[in-house]
Amino acid sequence: MCFIKVIKMDILTILGSSAFTYVIVPLLIFLARVIDVSIGTIRLIFISRGYKIYAPILGFFEILIWLAAITQIMRNLTNVECYLAYAAGFATGTYVGIVLEEKISFGKVIMRIMTGRDAKPLLENLRKEEFTVTTMGAQGPDDDVNIILSAMDRKSVTKAVGIIKKFNPNAFYSVEDVRFVHGKGEIPSKKMVSLGLGIFRKGK
Fold first, then answer.
1. Per residue in 53-83, pLDDT tens?
2. What is the CATH number of domain 108-197?
3. pTM for the model
4. Domain ranges of the chain
5. How many alpha carbons fall within 13 Å on the CB side of residue 79?
6. CA neighbor of 73 nearest in space, from 64, 62, 84, 63
7. How far apart are CA 182 and CA 180, in angstroms?
8. Angle CA(33)–CA(41)–CA(86) in degrees, nearest 5?
């Protein structure tokens, strides 16, 4: 019993100390904010990409952690360190969330490549690396150009960019998120070709 009383007294002493109020509590608030904002950033990305199951689950833990952080703020309204920790945690959490999203590399993207030179070597090597590509001719400001479209996993973008830089370093390309991709592309009807959309070829 005496041992338990000693432990309780030690805990109360720590909780009532200045170090706990001005160091440990702000640190806990900072960490809580980093975690909940990181989760929130990823949750928003999930929403934008149509992940209907994962987004609500992340939202549950996000708000739970946020409530824990805001509770400590309300208990320490005169503690400036808590306010600074709250703000710093928000900023850090936003950055960490973006970095995590880049590391996870989930979802699909569509890459558009435009080049005025012969695109055959580029196409051959993209297909060799199992990228499904579709090409069409278009009119640029000065001359005809080739447009290459390819839907791929986000984690494959770096690999595709490496191929572009190797075989057509001056090509213009852009990458955009897509919510949904089905199939591997189809050859358009003759009617579409006659409308001037160019000749599409199905990737291997």
1. 888 999 999 999 999 888 888 888 788 888 9
2. 3.30.70.120
3. 0.61
4. 2-104, 108-197
5. 20
6. 84
7. 7
8. 20
